[in-house]
Amino acid sequence: MATDRRPDFVPLAFERYPEQEMLSRGSAFERRLGRRRSVREFSSDPVPRTCIETAIRIAASAPSGANRQPWRFVVVDDPELKRRIRVAAEDEERENYEHRFPQEWKDALAPLGTDWHKPFLETAPYLVVVFKETHGVDDAGGRITNYYVNESVGIACGLFIAALQMMGLATLTHTPNPMGFLSELLGRPTNEKPYILFPVGFPADDASVPDLPRKPFDEIVQWNRG
Questions:
Q1: Among 5, 24, 135, 147, which has the minimal tally of Cβ within 10 Å of its Cβ?
Q2: Domains defined along the chain, listed by start
Q3: Residues 159-185: pLDDT tens digits?
């Protein structure tokens, strides 16, 4: 959506909480998001479509440059299409692991135990492919400039991940490179480029994840007090 018309301004819908409630809400959110992990072993158990729709609506509440909202969420649940996506992704990933990745990159990935096999692309009940809209197109076919596209889509994807975690669903930020096959398989226009592929579902009963530490708080924050 793009328009140069000045919008109407309305009162801000904002609720201010007492300090203790602020801290309580923040702590509860931190605990829930603190358990978030990238999952590569999924159950094939079905997930209500309304959960996916809710997560996308939450993602679409993200701020974006000039309110261009340069994102498109393409949801795939067709088994044959998921199979075709897996085959194409594995073709690219096999080439990456065997020829494209420098040794330093492979060394960095080694502790995670990943390789070119991507069975989760078929097992997870949904694949949600997020495309970034590099520019808009008006009714006459003219080009509409979008602003801060990567930043805007990245924020939307972060909200999508958080929404899934809050609903008790698992996902993975899968970025096969190159990703052009997704545009072809999903029939997207040339002004949309693949950004992230999210398999979405419940973890497999025997799913495991590497025990990886997060950086200490003091390493990721700096206070410049007056």
A1: 5
A2: 39-87+119-203 (3.40.109.10)
A3: 999 999 999 999 999 999 999 999 999
